[in-house]
Structure formats: C-alpha cells, structure tokens
Design a protein that fits this description.
Blueprint lengths: L10 H13 L10 H12 L17 H8 L10
Length: 80
Amino acid sequence: MWTGVRVLRSWSELGRSIHFLNARGYRFHSNPMKCWDLHLISEFVDDLERGELVVDLGATNLGAVRLLHQMAFVGFEATI
C-alpha cells in the first residue's frame, strides 16, 4: 500500500494522470489539476477490498467518490 507525500512536479506528470484515467474509462475531474489527485487516489485504494469503508473528507464535487464508484467500491451514502 502506498504511503507518503507526493507533489505534482510537471505538466507531463499531469498528462500521464489524465491518460491513466482515460485508459481505464474513469471520469475526469472538472479541474484538470485534480485529475492528478484522482490518479493517486486510485493507486492508493487499488489493493483494498471493494467492500471496505472508504471516506473522502475533502469531497466538494464528489470527484473521488465518483472514481471509487467506477472502481466498483460499494455502499456510498452520496448522490453519484
């Protein structure tokens, strides 16, 4: 499991994140910079069982919640 701090360092890194999401059919965030966050979140939770409890405390437009739903996590109490 991934732990630690990551910093977005370049536009090409952002482009790789957008390509990663697109290649998997995941929805993009309305703010392209947040696509990098979604890429990190998807890697962070990839090893979890899809029934695990996952909480996104920073959800403003449900970007991460939508991503987790697309990754087959279940049990959301938010409109997706």
